[in-house]
Write a structure and sequence with these properties.
heterodimer, A: 762 residues, alpha+beta, 21 helices, globular, B: 172 residues, binds FE2/S2 (inorganic) cluster
Chain lengths: 762, 172
């Protein structure tokens, strides 16, 4: 059934965080201020690669109104951060490696003064040769960016005998795919407020996807005990993976501690661009072969990912790409060789899809090319080679039995849009230079962090003194609708009214560590937590109620407002009365790990979401511009927890994928960004986002599946690009290998002749 | 010239009186003429519903109504506001303290996710519907082409605008 308001009934609800958002009354953490607040600014390197010979902060310090000027000498603890590897300097000591590298920071009474103070800090640099190309970074004579070399991570996988595999092939295609340095472009740039407390603790109000990870990292940097730091981390004006790693937090924290005053930092867009993370640009070379009937026999892949100056999650992203270039297909002979390479380009890191987007663009492109060689329907080729429900995962690892691949394949096949593919041009008269095509692609996308990476989860339910039932989680709301989903699950699974519920998230002083809000994992983990807590929490409440009422437990049930007598359906006791009754506070918690596969392969996944996309595009051969006319998405992710959120995540993910495909590239030359703001870095606007996005969730899970809903936060963003590429090929016969698609490629001289003719006729 | 004056900073800099109306209230503000409206609203008046994002007039997060027209507060200098009627998201809403139908439409259709673009988006829709109550799809696209939303994919926003138009049509 298609997902929309009309088909969702009562489950289509107004978000609990909605009213404040539409009235503008919601205070984002970058909206906050405090009495006596100072403004922080960070001095960043103008050079992509240089030695620091001298830093002189004297003049800046002397400026009236400046309260602190910090350099690496002022870091009390570890002068490094990074979720997985702590190799990014808080302040560079003797070398800068990209144009976002921080050298100093100031706190002053006004933002303008802080800005002036930055100009008074003198830094002498000795320029070093720049490595601005990942492939070149691998050469023997390339300048070394880190003592251990220019390779952050090398990830390989092989099975079978590639040589004999290829020699048995009747058809082989070979191509190289390039994907862009996409920018998250969260509308709220990084920032926050840092407040030293009277008791010496530090409160950090700054967006992140994992408050406890920030707390751990800040404790290392400040040399303060973790318990002395409180992180308040939601609401967030968008993240998409971009705020998972520390950004302003080290500077805000150090400045606040040094000055003992509240300090506010809020990045300008340009500072956000130069210092922030991007999607890894990748070059993926593939050689793939089939037998005469179209059965895949051999698949060889080489991946070069430009990870930029420091590690952050570059290794983990590469592992994900290596897994996803294999995709939902069966092959006997496989070899993947991937490198994540340091350069002096901007930092690459975590981004919605986590390296799957690049992989799927290349892999699905190969399938389309093979189908063409075989003279076969590309969708049929996919069906023929698709994994079966109890096949192992891409690495041969055990995974949960799933019919997802076939389900989304069937759904797309049956969709009106795909049925139209024989004659996409028919229904409308178009100008002769406008060409229309329909294409499709599909994917399996892993959820959770994967094998070998700590992936804890859990949460707590309590009855508060005022009678509210508190759901307490360490997750963050960055727009994805986590609160709305949680509220709906509490209403449906416990029979509560919205007014019975208080949700508490995003504050390390109040919540348990539920793991990171990332990797499409939070919905699954909240669901599992509620499953675990349902019995113990409900029975505690009912037992207490039974005692008070003198009625046996089996005659009582939870409902909206309080405890009901099941037989008569009358409210016997409100939650407030229950809370006021004597006795120990009722509270239950659970903690567990995200389910993982029984394999030693680091990063391998156990749970997957499947998606298929069909897209119809129009190409203007005069301008070379592509316009998406219609989209269909089938998503097999188990039961839909929150219809409005589900639809929004797929629509939003597809919009991001549209930018990835057509316009978005944070261009760099010689290690410098060419696209500094939203006038040159072009994300889709309402004008680009034409046509309908039809979403069909497939909720059916195999019998006995106990894992419930799978994540959908990322999957909407991974499959559109190859579908658009396929549609372009159908329309104009051109194979796209590089994203974003260069309009020149699609311009056609004949179209100009047509146009001239048309004009002269008028 | 002192350093502060050089900066156009508030402290000690030449302050001018700016008289304007903000959300229906007459205001006399002491501001430096070089200041932008966005900063006056957010930093001086704590009206943080108006958002800051690109600061070059591209994203629409800072949209406010100036004499009923949608204007990017990040591009507007404080002195340009003299004598003008400024309405921010905080000033949008029904007279009885409830919300505007446009706001309700965004709520019901899920026309937002993180919500950071939403105030600016609602201001643009308000300006559109006030001048053109029954706009064509192209008009809607044009009116909202200066408002970037990174989260929703615009589907929810389009549905919200359509609903707001219907409600206006139905209302007497
Ligand atoms: S902040 Fe004014 S248009 Fe972006
Ligand atoms: S809702 Fe996040 S930018 Fe629009």
């Amino acid at each position: 059934m298609l997902l929309k308001r009309e088909s969702s009934g009562k489950r289509w609800r107004i978000r609990p965080d909605g009213l404040e958002k539409v009235t503008g009354s919601l205070a984002y953490l970058t909206d906050m201020s405090a009495a006596g607040m100072l403004y922080g600014r960070v001095l960043r390197s103008p050079h992509p690669h240089a030695l620091i010979l001298r830093i002189c902060t004297e003049k800046a310090r002397q400026l009236e109104g400046v309260h602190a000027v910090l350099t690496h000498l002022d870091v009390p603890g570890l002068n490094r951060y990074g979720i997985a590897h702590q190799d990014q300097p808080v302040f560079c000591e003797n070398k800068v490696r990209y144009v976002g590298d921080a050298v100093a920071a100031v706190a002053a009474e006004t933002a303008e003064l802080a800005e002036l103070a930055l100009t008074l800090i003198e830094v002498d640099y000795e320029l070093l040769p720049i490595v601005d190309d990942a492939e070149r970074a691998l050469l023997q004579d390339a300048p070394l960016l880190h003592p251990q070399g220019n390779i952050l991570h090398h990830s390989q996988f092989h099975r079978g005998q590639l040589g004999s595999g290829f020699s048995a092939c009747a058809h082989i295609v070979e191509d190289t795919y390039f994907t862009p340095r996409q920018m998250h472009t969260y509308m709220e740039t990084e920032g926050g407020l840092f407040v030293p407390q009277e008791d010496g603790r530090l409160t950090v109000y700054s967006p992140t996807q994992h408050g406890f990870m920030d707390r751990l990292q800040l404790s290392r940097i400040t040399a303060m005990k973790q318990e002395r730091i409180r992180i308040v981390s939601s609401p967030i004006g968008g993240s998409f993976g971009g705020k998972d790693e520390l950004n302003v937090q080290p500077y805000g924290a150090l400045l606040a501690l040094k000055t003992n005053r509240p300090v506010k930092l809020h990045h300008s867009r340009w500072e956000s661009v130069r210092a922030g993370l991007k999607r890894h640009p990748m070059k993926i070379s593939m050689k793939t072969g089939t037998d005469a009937s179209g059965r895949l026999l051999a698949h060889q892949v080489r991946i070069i990912a430009d990870t930029g100056a420091y590690a952050t999650l570059g290794a983990e992203v590469l592992n994900f790409t290596v897994e996803h270039v294999l995709g939902p297909y069966r092959y006997e002979h496989v070899e993947v060789d991937g490198y994540s390479v340091y350069t002096n380009n901007g930092m690459s890191g975590e981004f919605r899809g986590f390296g799957g987007n690049q992989a799927i663009f290349a892999l699905e492109g190969q399938l389309d090319r093979l189908a063409e060689k075989l003279g076969m329907d590309p969708w049929e080729l996919r069906r023929m080679n698709m994994r079966m429900p109890d096949d192992p995962g891409p690495f041969g690892q055990p995974i949960v039995v799933t019919e997802g691949a076939m389900q989304v394949w069937n759904a797309a096949e049956a969709s009106d849009l795909w049925q139209e593919r024989g004659a996409p041009n028919r229904e409308e008269e178009r100008e002769p230079w406008l060409k229309v095509g329909i294409g499709s692609a599909f994917t399996m996308h892993g959820g959770g962090l994967g094998v070998g990476i700590p992936d804890p989860a859990g949460g707590r339910l309590s009855l508060a003194a005022d009678g509210r039932i508190e759901a307490i989680f360490g997750y963050e709301e960055f727009g994805q609708g986590l609160l709305a989903t949680l509220e709906l699950m509490l209403i449906e699974q416990f029979g509560l009214a919205a007014s019975d519920i208080r949700m508490i998230i995003g504050d390390t002083d109040l919540v348990p560590d539920s793991g990171s809000t990332t990797a499409s994992r939070a919905t699954s983990m909240m669901w599992k937590t509620l499953q675990n807590l349902k019995l113990p929490f409900t029975s505690q409440l009912l037992e207490r109620a039974a005692e008070l009422l003198g009625i046996s437990v089996d005659k009582l049930a939870m409902g909206a407002g309080g405890i009901y007598e099941t037989a008569g359906n009358t409210l016997l006791l409100s939650y407030k009365e229950l809370a006021e009754a004597e006795g120990e506070r009722i509270s239950c918690s659970t903690s567990f790990l995200f389910p993982t596969s029984d394999t030693s392969r680091t990063g391998a996944h156990f749970l997957y979401t499947y998606a298929a996309v069909v897209v119809k595009v129009e190409i203007n051969q005069l301008t070379g511009r592509v316009r998406v006319l219609d989209q269909y998405h089938a998503v097999a992710a188990g039961p839909v927890m929150n219809p409005q959120g589900f639809l929004g995540q797929i629509e939003g993910g597809s919009s991001m994928a549209l930018g990835f495909t057509l316009t978005e590239d944070a261009l760099m030359q010689q290690g410098q960004y060419m696209t500094k703001n939203l006038d040159t870095y072009l994300v889709p606007t309402i004008v680009e986002h034409r046509g309908a996005v039809t979403v069909e969730p497939i909720e059916h899970l195999p019998q006995g599946d106990s894992y419930g809903p799978r994540g959908i936060g990322e999957v909407g963003s991974v499959t559109l690009a190859p579908a658009i590429a396929a549609a372009i090929h159908q329309a104009v016969g051109i194979r796209v290998t590089k994203l974003p698609i260069e309009p020149e490629l699609l311009q056609n001289d004949c179209a100009f002749a047509f146009a001239e003719e048309a004009v002269s006729k008028r | 010239m002192s350093k502060h004056e050089m900066l156009g900073a508030p402290r000690g800099a030449k302050q001018r009186e700016l008289a304007c109306t903000i959300n229906g209230e007459d205001m006399k503000l002491e501001v430096n003429g070089a200041k932008r409206l966005l900063s006056v609203l957010r930093d001086d008046l704590a009206l943080t519903g108006t958002k800051r994002s690109c600061e070059i007039g591209r994203c629409g997060a800072c949209m406010v109504l100036v004499d009923g027209k949608p204007i990017n507060a990040c591009l507007t200098m404080a002195y340009q506001c003299a004598g003008k009627q400024i309405t921010t998201i905080e000033g949008i809403g029904a007279a009885d303290g409830g919300i505007e139908p446009i706001q309700r439409a965004f709520l019901e259709e899920g026309g937002f996710q993180c919500g950071y673009c939403t105030p600016g988006m609602i201001i643009s829709v308000k300006a559109l519907l006030d001048r053109s109550p029954d706009p064509s799809e192209e008009e809607v696209e044009e009116a909202l082409s200066g408002n970037i939303c990174r989260c929703t994919g615009y589907g929810g926003i389009k549905r919200a605008v359509q609903r707001a138009i219907e409600w206006r049509r139905e209302a007497p």
